[in-house]
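Summary of Year 1 activities. Much of the first year was spent building the evaluation harness for sequence design. The harness presents a backbone, in tokenized form, and records the residue chosen at every position. We chose the following record to illustrate the format because it has been used consistently in internal testing since the harness was completed.
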């Protein structure tokens, strides 16, 4: 199988795992982007000779351009550079593993170039899902989820024959995060160090905090509603501590399909890159002849109140999912820099949603304004 791949966020955790898969499958890397780790970008340029490399920071882009001036790779800079990379990479599929809503514009730029998207960046689907999915449809572009839950659902629905019309419920599995079983009051003294120690998946800091608050699951719920076109009341969340069942789909005849495997993001990344085919993997298979048990438990939505909040935001739609996401991005930043406590993340996000008058959104510029406005508002509340 030959594929041309472009990676946005190639030095992050998902980006590096994608590089491993590209290496093992022998795919071609046509473009990469990164934020600050220019040493890693230089290594990737020297190994894969991509056509373009984009660096969001202007000054670091200049540094990198000097370092790799003996290579054919063109270094682009700034947010516009990332969009240009997404638009001109010439890739068959673009893997977007950027963090936060900054991934919206590059996603649209790739869609405009008719490039399929392997989506590991959940915020664009949450904040701008309606715009992104309708533009993808108009351009005949496939959006293939990389998030393990959505990859599982995608595989269950598309396994064999297309059965979207028979879907009754989606059941998202949640590891429960590091604080499963605790009540809100017991979370008061959680520090960034404690919150970032995730039991099963290894990942970056922002998503670790999102896993601890279960905002991650709340974003995934909205993502599932958008990607699979089911209403919010038909997406359920169950706590499954082993992270072996990555999610399930129940059909109208009450039969349920699940997708299973070791918790390893490389499975999902490779599936998205090779879809609709499959190829051998560097991931180890499960051994079902050994004894192990799978458990499912209810989630305490009073402590982890982002789930009911997300249901409300996506059911009402418009600007609300964008507001929820923007407030969370800002609150997590404040928490990681120790300016607010762990439980303040919940109240800041809930207050931002409560204080916002919903707008119907049709263009991306207005959405960016709201995103910026809400973030500024959260930063200011925390200061006062
Ligand atoms: Mg996930």
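For this record, the design step produced the sequence shown next.
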């Amino acid at each position: 199988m030959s594929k041309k791949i472009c990676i946005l966020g190639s030095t992050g955790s998902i980006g590096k795992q994608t590089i491993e898969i590209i290496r093992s499958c022998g795919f071609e890397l046509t473009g990469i982007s990164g934020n600050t780790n220019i040493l890693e970008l230089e290594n990737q340029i020297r190994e894969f000779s991509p056509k373009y490399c984009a660096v969001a920071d202007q000054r670091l882009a200049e540094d990198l351009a000097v370092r790799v001036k003996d290579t054919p790779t063109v270094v682009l800079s700034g947010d516009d550079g990332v969009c240009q990379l997404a638009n001109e990479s010439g890739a068959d599929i673009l893997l977007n593993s950027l963090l936060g809503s900054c991934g919206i514009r590059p996603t649209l730029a790739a869609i405009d170039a008719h490039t399929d998207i392997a989506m590991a960046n959940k915020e664009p689907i949450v904040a701008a899902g309606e715009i992104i999915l309708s533009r993808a449809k108009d351009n005949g572009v496939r959006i293939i989820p990389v998030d393990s839950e959505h990859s599982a659902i995608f595989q269950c629905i598309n396994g064999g024959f297309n059965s979207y019309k028979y879907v009754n419920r989606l059941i998202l599995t949640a590891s429960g995060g590091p604080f499963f079983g605790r009540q809100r009051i017991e979370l008061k003294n959680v520090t960034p160090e404690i919150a970032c120690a995730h039991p099963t998946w290894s990942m970056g800091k922002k998503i670790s905090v999102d896993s601890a608050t279960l905002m991650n699951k709340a974003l995934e719920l909205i993502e599932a509603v958008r990607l699979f076109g089911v209403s919010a009341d038909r997406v359920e969340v169950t706590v499954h501590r082993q992270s072996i069942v990555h999610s399930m789909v129940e059909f109208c005849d009450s039969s349920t399909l699940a997708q299973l495997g070791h918790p390893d993001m490389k499975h999902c990344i490779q599936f998205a890159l090779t879809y609709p085919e499959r190829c051998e993997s560097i991931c180890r298979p499960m051994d079902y002849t050994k004894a192990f048990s799978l458990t499912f438990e209810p989630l305490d939505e009073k402590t982890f109140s982002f789930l009911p909040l997300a249901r409300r935001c996506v059911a009402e739609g418009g600007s609300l999912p964008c507001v929820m996401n923007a407030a969370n991005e800002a609150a997590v930043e404040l928490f990681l820099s120790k300016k607010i406590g762990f439980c303040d993340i919940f109240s800041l996000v809930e207050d931002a949603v409560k204080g916002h008058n919903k707008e119907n959104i049709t263009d991306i510029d207005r959405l960016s304004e709201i995103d910026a406005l809400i973030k500024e508002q959260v930063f200011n509340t925390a200061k006062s």
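The chain has a mean pLDDT of 94. Quantitative recovery figures across the full test set are reported in Table 2.
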